[in-house]
Write a structure and sequence with these properties.
Strands 7-6-5-4-3-2-1-8 form an eight-stranded parallel sheet. It contains twelve helices and eight strands. It is globular and about 60 Å long. Helix 6 links the parallel strand 3 and strand 4. The protein starts with 14 loop residues before the first helix and ends in a 12-residue tail after the last helix. The protein is α/β, with parallel strands linked by helices. The relative contact order is 0.15.
Length: 315
């Protein structure tokens, strides 16, 4: 059974009931949503606040490598960087997690030792999600057995777009049941969902089915995290907590590459969901290249000089 609020038991009793609930959600004003996201992106912050924001953003990164050419050596190097992002300055925060494929979980876990950095693993036939349910669940079990603290699953976008909402809900519920103590992030691949209304509906399905986080994207398609789709998901988690008392995290992933962009997303969090989400337990960045720019900007604030990319490690 999914770990969702009792208030939604009736809404998930059948495909028809779930459809009525989801299509009864308020429609998204696309123009208004994009205008608000753009307006919040123009906010400026002072130097002291920028230093705080940079350290906060570093602490929220899921440092990620999801390539077919990943090797144990690369995962060990990435894990070392997660623990000490700037070896010349041990005051630099650790990242939130290292995110890898299931077969690299044990390697990452061993490399991290007792560091306060989670191991996240993509699962359920990432990134396409095109596999039978037993295969997807076995993928999750393997990652959890290897020591994953967090599971990043993908929904079946084909099922969702075909209107098979209960099937999508039941997939998430089944994966959640396999996670044990591992936290579950549900990836919607917002770039493939076509409309903001679909993103809102997917967000509610994920939360009702027991997601600990809702996540924009895999980072493997043309359109990934944007201020507008992240704002919409932040509104969803805010509204869900107001109705149920259950807090759900948000993870924009893919396409956030520099400090300026990251700070814009932190402003979105603060102004939309509120300060309760300004913590890596409730907000993450799925990123591979963002960390280096944050480190360069951090060095500039502390030394007054721009170090450049040669002064940070290449992932």
């Amino acid at each position: 059974m999914p770990s969702t609020a009792p208030a939604f038991v009736d809404a998930t009793a059948s495909d028809g009931a779930l459809r009525r609930f989801l299509h009864g959600l308020p429609g998204v004003d696309a123009v208004g949503l994009e205008a608000r996201a753009a307006a919040l992106g123009t906010r400026s912050i002072k130097t002291s606040a920028k230093a705080y924001a940079i350290d906060l953003a570093i602490s929220m990164i899921d440092l990620t490598t999801l390539e077919g050419a990943d090797t144990p050596g690369k995962v060990r190097a990435l894990s070392a960087k997660a623990v000490h992002p700037d070896p010349t300055d041990r005051t630099t925060p650790t990242t939130a997690a290292v995110c890898v494929y299931p077969d690299m979980v044990a390697t990452a876990k061993a490399a991290l030792g007792g560091a306060d950095v989670k191991v996240a693993s993509v699962a359920t036939a990432f990134p396409a999600g095109r596999a039978a349910l037993p295969v997807k669940l076995a993928d999750v079990r393997d990652a959890v057995a290897a020591g994953a603290d967090e599971i990043d699953m993908v929904i079946d976008r084909g099922a969702f777009l075909a209107g098979r909402y209960l099937e999508t809900y039941e997939l998430i519920s089944a994966v959640k049941a396999e996670c044990g103590s591992a936290r579950l992030k549900v990836i919607f691949e917002t770039g493939e969902l076509s409309t903001y209304d679909n993103i809102r509906r997917a967000s509610w399905i994920g939360m009702m089915a027991g997601a600990d986080f809702i996540k924009t994207s895999t980072g493997k398609v043309g359109v990934n995290a944007t201020p507008a789709n992240t704002l919409l998901m932040l509104e969803a988690v805010r509204d869900f907590r107001e109705q149920t008392g259950i807090q759900v995290g948000v993870k924009p992933a893919g396409g956030i590459r520099n400090t300026k962009e990251a700070i814009k997303f932190l402003v979105l969090v603060n102004e939309t969901a509120g300060v309760d989400w300004l913590d890596n337990h409730w907000f993450r960045f799925g990123a591979s290249s963002l960390l280096n720019d944050l480190l360069m900007q951090r060095q500039k604030l502390s030394t007054g000089r721009y170090s450049g990319p040669d002064y940070v490690t290449v992932d």
